[in-house]
Amino acid sequence: MSARQMKLGLFLWATGHHIAAWRHPDAHVTAGIDIDHYIQLARTAEAAKFDMVFCEDAAGLREANVNIASQTSRSIGLEPISLLSALAVQTERIGLVSTASTSYNEPYGLARMFASLDNLSGGRAGWNLVTSASPIEAANFGSTGLRPHADRYERAREFAAVVTGLWHRKAAGHDGQSFSVRDPLDVPPSPQGAPVMVQAGASDDGKDLAARTADVVFSAAQTFEEAKAFYDDLKGRLPAYGRQPDDVKIMPGVAPIVAATKAEAQAKYDALQELIPDDVAVALLSSYLSISDLQRYPIDGPLPELPESEGMKSRQVLVIEQARRDGLSIRELARYFAGARGHWRVVGTAEQIADELQARFEGGAADGFNVMPSWFPGELDAFATLVVPELQRRGLFRTDYEGRTLREHLGLRRPA
Fold it and tell me: Residue 145: helix, strand or coil by DSSP?
């Protein structure tokens, strides 16, 4: 039995993470605004002893000029703090993590909001810090355009320092370059001391910010080598900030499709792939590459040379490297990307998927995984009933919660 056990998060996303999930015959098309749907997913994950559920957020529609049905099914949803507050009273142990942007919030209000969720849930809240890389979001907040990458991270560093100072009850008052805060927080500390800090940036600026402040890091990697390089890089930055390797849990995204046989799992994946509209897939790829006119290139031709992005730099590099490495056309790349937005995809039996997860976990490329089911609730149910018991049988995952707070689940120290 392994002494070290992996962590598992459930990445919530309306109908599912595959871009065509909304077209699946058993999909719940209005899932994004159905609280009962989310309660069911959270309870399934809690029964399987997941560490947390995670809600991404973007203050705007994800891709412009695409199929309206696709946008409605994938992008329309509930504001995540409101959603997690509802889930807090419908669950008992599972962690509740949400994205909130440092570009379009203010530190005092955000610190107060997450501290309130932390208290309401009995110490189960976490904040996923993002800097927001979409010009569509920027246009919704009176901005003249997307701020340069370096400027966004400069603001984020100060933002994180103010928020953690408020949570940790440091001396009141902050007068900095971007923010001024006078009063201490008016919400008491939670049972876990402070919400868990989560980040997902993979650029140098992103990894440096994570090494300074994050408790959990979500990442994307197609290959073991990519995952291992990211893991070693980030863990290697921690000593500079007086931190130990176990102070940060790195949890790459994984999109599993599981069935009783490999052939059945492959058939499930192939059926989803057949549901992808090409215009939607190319629009999704364009948004992550921060290029507005990818549609003007021949869809069966190669990905053109692209300028360096001011958006999601690390994801752009990952996608371009995959296209060049595998010789993919725009159509092939877009269809592959549509399955999990650049995250690792695994198709097979419970034993095969457990083998793959175990290899990355024990090979020093992950502390756990952020699970991204292709469609809900079907693939979550399959993972919970097939893969989780196999991981437990191998001693790689808990059979019951060790504590009540998210920090206890993750094995993180309580803040002083």
Answer: coil
Max intra-chain CA distance, the chain: 61
Give the CA-trace dihedral at 195, 196, 202, 208, to 10 degrees.
Answer: 80
- Which is nearest to 416 in space by CA: 169, 213, 121, 214? 169
Q: For residues 237-256, give the mean pLDDT.
A: 97
pLDDT of residue 142: 72
75 is in an annotated binding site: no
Task: Report whether 144 contacts 129 (CB < 8 A).
Answer: no
Q: Domains (ranges, CATH) in the chain?
A: 7-257+344-410 (3.20.20.30), 264-339 (no CATH)
Q: Could you read off the pLDDT of 251-260 as tens digits, one per residue?
A: 999 999 999 9
Q: At what angle do helices 313-326 and 278-289 cross, to 10 degrees?
A: 120
CA distance 31 to 289: 28
**DSSP per residue, 88-132:** HTT-SSSEEEEEEESSSS-HHHHHHHHHHHHHHTTS-EEEEEE--
Give the pair of three-digit tokens for residue 318.
């990952």
pLDDT in tens, 162-210: 999 999 987 668 998 999 999 899 999 889 999 999 999 888 989 999 9
Would you state the pLDDT for residue 232? 98
Q: CB of 243 within 8 A of CB of 360?
A: no
99 is in an annotated binding site: yes
Task: Show Cβ contacts of residue 395 under 8 Å, excluding neighbours closer than 6 positions.
Answer: 1, 2, 5
Section 345-354 average pLDDT = 98
Q: How many CA atoms lie within 13 A of 240 on its CB side?
A: 12
What angle, rounded to 10 degrees, do the helices at 204-213 and 224-237 form? 50
Distance CA 65, CA 79 (A): 23
Integer CA distances (angstroms), 365 to 169, 352, 395, 405, in order: 35, 18, 18, 26
DSSP string, 15-49: T-SSTTGGGSTT--TTGGG-HHHHHHHHHHHHHTT
Tell whether residue 270 is among the known ligand binding residues. Answer: no
pTM: 0.90
